[in-house]
Design brief:
This protein folds into 4 domains: 143 residues, HUPs (Rossmann fold), CATH 3.40.50.620; 109 residues, Alpha-Beta Complex (Glutamyl-tRNA Synthetase, domain 3), CATH 3.90.800.10; 49 residues, no CATH class; 94 residues, Arc Repressor Mutant, subunit A (Orthogonal Bundle), CATH 1.10.10. It is 46% helix and 11% strand.
């Protein structure tokens, strides 16, 4: 049987880290077995589901190269199918109509809470044999047994069905509810493995029983542990967790983001970096940790820097253009500048920001310790004695700098720190040899003169 997985987001918001990980693991699992990866929009929440969020999710998956193998399924377009099958369960006695009023259910809940019982429907309409009268809801009759399945990550799972109530599958207006729709769609899409967050465990028990009642083939299930913040709390934007397309706008590379996301709960032989082909060879759900993973923006930055360093300057210039930067590709020494800046950059945005040091003469703060009279004397001596007339390569300039430092009985920071400040107005910048080479002799002299004034 062909392996078929699905990613089923609700289009009530943009794709985030947790959802992207679910999509990635589902894609990898299917593709590693020669199978198919599908996309379904669970858009039955008419008020909150928006086409703009569907478009955003599609763009995010495309940027991550996690494209579905078939056209996306829109759950809202299958409501008549869902309703028909829900009514078939009523006909076979697996569902029943409930005429309890909201007030009656609220009173039941209050009594249960007062008695320190779990709030849940008590099945009082089970044996009434009611027909639909225009305001009844249709409830699924939860079997009087336990439900067991082998989770591909968590292992054997058994839940006493008495822990779950007879949940609603058709509202009073005849519209089907989420759990019923999801179960039917998984059947119709011939999904063989459902991979999703472990916050869906209760939904899985409900959906398993629905599929059994519909006499369908049960898929396998794998529940991923949560992704938490570094402090162990629910992940939020304050922790650096952005929507996926925001990462692109901020200058993260899709390959770096994927490599980081796959490590959120999965590992292989302590290897840090993988190509997509390697992931397809190595990925297996049995290697997924059953404990929650923690999101680290610092580690994501490390991955992005590693990917940036491996890219050639032409590719980086193209990517910089795609995110709307204004770097002139015809700028003098542009490729050399990009190659220098990428080494210490966390993102494409950081490359763009640091490019300014080559575009603009720095503003020197005369009160800064690096602009002290002592430092100015060191730079003045350097300016007077260093030969700026030679047109040479980086290696030659770097060697002459070393010779100058040694011949003048200086330590490298004594010259390096104030000279870097003179050339860029910054304390954190590329090496002074690289700066002198990339700025060129005339621009370097101009900036040093400005510093000394």
């Amino acid at each position: 049987m062909t392996e078929r997985t699905r990613f089923a987001p609700s289009p009530t918001g943009h794709l985030h880290i947790g959802g992207a990980r679910t999509a990635l693991f589902s894609w990898l699992f299917a593709k590693s077995k020669g199978g198919q990866f599908l996309l379904r929009f669970e858009d039955t929440d008419i008020e909150r589901s928006k086409d703009e969020f569907k478009d955003s999710i599609l763009k995010s998956l495309e940027w991550l190269n996690l494209n579905p193998d078939e056209e996306p399924v829109h759950q809202s377009r299958n409501l008549e199918r869902h309703k028909s099958l829900a009514l078939s369960l009523f006909e076979k006695g697996a569902a029943y109509y409930c005429d309890c009023s909201i007030e009656e259910l609220e009173e039941l809940r209050a009594t249960q809470i007062k008695n320190k019982q779990k709030p849940m429907y008590d099945g009082r309409s089970r044996e009434k044999n009611l027909e639909y009268e225009g305001k009844n809801v249709l409830r699924y009759k939860m079997p009087d047994a336990s439900t067991s399945f082998e989770d591909l990550i968590l292992g054997d799972i058994t839940v006493d069905n008495r822990e779950l109530d007879d949940f609603i599958i058709l509202r009073a207006d005849g519209t089907p509810t989420y759990n019923f729709c999801a179960a039917v769609d998984d059947l119709d899409m011939k999904i063989s493995t459902v991979i999703r967050g472990d916050d869906h465990l209760t939904n899985t028990i409900k959906q398993l029983n629905i599929i059994k009642s519909l006499e369908g083939n049960l898929p396998n299930y794998a529940h991923l542990p949560m992704v938490l913040s570094e402090s162990g709390k629910r992940l939020s934007k304050r922790d650096g967790a952005l929507d996926i397309m925001d990462y692109k706008s901020e200058g993260y590379l899709s390959g770096a983001l994927l490599n980081y996301i796959v490590r959120l709960g999965w590992a292989k032989d302590e290897v840090e970096k993988f190509t997509m082909n390697e992931l397809l060879d190595f990925f297996d759900l049995s290697d997924v940790n059953s404990s929650p993973s923690k999101f680290s923006l610092q580690l994501l930055d490390w991955y992005n820097n590693e990917y940036l360093k491996e890219m050639d300057s032409s590719t980086l210039l193209k990517l910089l253009s795609e995110i709307g930067t204004n770097i002139n590709e015809n700028f003098k020494n542009i490729h050399g500048i990009i190659d220098v800046l990428k080494v210490g950059a966390k993102s494409l945005k950081e490359i763009e920001e640091n490019f300014d040091m080559f575009l603009k003469s720095p503003s020197i703060d005369k009160s800064d310790s690096l602009a002290s009279e002592e430092n100015k004397k060191i730079i003045k001596d350097f300016f007077d004695n260093f030969d700026f007339s030679k047109d040479e390569n980086l290696e030659s300039i770097s060697q002459r700098l070393k010779d100058y430092i040694n011949n003048n009985d200086l330590k490298f920071p004594q010259l390096g720190k104030p000279l870097r400040y003179a050339l860029t107005g910054r304390t954190n910048a590329p090496g002074i040899g690289e700066l002198l080479y990339l700025l060129g002799n005339e621009e370097s002299k101009k900036r040093i003169k400005n510093y000394l004034e």
